[in-house]
Amino acid sequence: MSRKIRRRKILKGLGVAGVAGLAGCAQAGEDTPTEEDAGGDGGDGGDGGDGEDMSTATPTETPGDGTETTDGDGGGAESRTIRLGILMGVTGQLSDLGPPIRQAAELAADYVDEESDTFTVDYQFEDTATDPNTGISAAESLVSAGYPMIAGALSSTVTIQTANNVAVPNGVVECSPASTSPAITDLEDNGYLYRTTPTDALQSQVMTQIGRERLEASTTATLALNNDYGQGLADAYVSAWEEAGGTVQQEVSFEPGASSYTSQLSSALQDQPDLLMIVGYPDSGVRIFRDFYNDYSQDFCDIIVPDGLQSGSLPGNVGNSMRNVWGTAPTSTGPGRETFDSLYQEAYDSDPSESPFTGQSFDAVAVLALANAAAGENNGEAIRDQMNAVANEGGETVTPENLAEGLEMAASGTEVNYQGASSAVEFDDVGDIAAATYQYYRYQEGGFEVIENIDYSA
């Protein structure tokens, strides 16, 4: 079909045009980083229904569910439009981390649209600017436009606010690929909020294990961004560290966008801890590390950081090799990892492993699409009721490689089990991922090197 041929050209073209366009709008600093967003251009919306040539077919759309009846050579076969909102921060604090995560989400949507002869994907992107208020407005735009499900947000604070104020009250399913705050676990979400990334209750355990066993530290201090992501992870880390028999000397918070963090660093380091844990995003992280190396040497103490500060450009922006900085981040080791890597490399001419949460982002869209297909309609409640059914154990295995076929199986009533790029994507009873694999990495001149992968489960 001509639409599929054209879609392939668009997908490959994104490797140049899409990256350049995103780079142009990402000069300020999201809903990650993993977290928070800002702008809301919405200019990339409706990619699935772009008016491409449908050959001799004459579609008649049923309002509300996006069902079309094709009267051409298809012999009356039914086709459907899957409607998807993408809500992510590509400006603001997550300007460094957000764009690749958005690309992975759009890759999944374009891939389904291209490969399926039955389903078309109509999606609209909104930028949260890694800001809760902007995120709420952006989410409202998606809900008003009739999107029953949303991939996002990135920042934990943005995800919590958009879920509480927009998605849950309106019966819209939200699935975040990057929000890791433990606070999300206990949210009163009526079953509408999911995430394909693990809670920081797990990451705090991994960071503590590395700090105590690998780095041989007995004392630590924390310097954390004052939001749900920063404080949630810092609190979980403090608890884990103390449970492991270590001593926490200082707990210091900071606000984003300050011109200097010298005072906060001085407070955190006053008792000369063996290990300093810093949690935030690259936007503020550059200033924090510049201030650290202006006043302290690499030998003063080791530093450990989480996914929010995983950025290959950080040493260059800081002007230091940062070899005393170690890190952890959820990584992608799912059954569909190889297929995802190949698709992403072809579309964007870059390695997705260099950016956190890309595999999780592809998986968020894939699970939402499968739940939509199984539900048979663009209805948030119906989609919500299928999320666990299409992801958890049991049924025919679906991976990124046979995702289009999986949609047709789900739509026909066949039980399916999605196993993704990031993990097997098993949701627990509150929509969390119960197990994850974390990269253990170290910064060095020109970027970071992964030392090993560590499997961890609750």
TrEMBL record:
Residues 27-79 are annotated as: Disordered. It comes from the Archaea. The keyword Iron does not apply. Keywords: Signal. It holds the Pfam family Peripla_BP_6. Residues 81-391 form the Leucine-binding protein domain. Residues 56-69 have a biased composition (Low complexity). SUPFAM superfamilies: Periplasmic binding protein-like I. This is ABC transporter substrate-binding protein. It comes from Halosimplex pelagicum.
